[in-house]
Amino acid sequence: MRLVLTGMACAFLSILAPRWLPDAGPLLAAFGAGGILLILVGVGALFVPGTDHTGEPLVIQPPVQGRWLALNSPATKVPSHGVRAYGQAYAVDLVFEPQESERPQFGSGPGMRRPTDFPAFGEPVLSPVPGTVVRVQDSARDHRSRSRLWAVGYMMIEGMLRELGGVRNIVGNHVVIDAGDGCFALVAHLQRGSAQVGAGDQVEAGQALGRCGNSGNSSEPHVHVQLMDRANPSTAQGLPMTFTGIAIGDGQPTTGMPANGEYMTVS
Looking at the record's lineage, which domain of life comes first (predicted)? Predict the structure, then answer.
């Protein structure tokens, strides 16, 4: 994405600069052509096929408890989020929808709701694996939701600007855990100031890491979890995963991954 943004900047500069540099036509034309090339290469890199790790999914514990709706699930498609950037080919988003509380629906009410309007906000987020904490980000603010089409459009533009600031601006507050054997777990979009662990800490699966927030490139409070082959999401590839001890829909506890729009319950 940074290639795309750099290319756009070069292209715009080649269009605007002749006002101030009227004698630099050929140079600016080459500058603009280079910008278009960067845009094409950057977009192509986002959708390049055949770069996913394959093999049996790694079994991990769900990072939440209660009743959660799965969105952008690898059980439905890979890459689950449409792109492979930031090691998220097999990532899943989990939205809290308890039976006793109603979650604000997309398209109803204000386009930018307070994060406290959503039942997920402040819910405990647990470690999906045992291991060593290697990265903690805890200072990004929790912004309002993007709950209407115009707000999603705003989020897309905002996301391009976040790309300039690197991975922390995309995943927001997050924790990365080294589970060993070349496997790293990331949980993202945590609530500001909620981290309960620090780099170097040893954690067990199911141990509290923080609370669900709405930091980073997020449309509403939710938990994003993924496995990857290195600690830095900027250069990582995703690893397939599946949850243990979950009930999908009205089923019995099992090992699996809910598809898009399916509920999983963790007791």
Answer: Bacteria
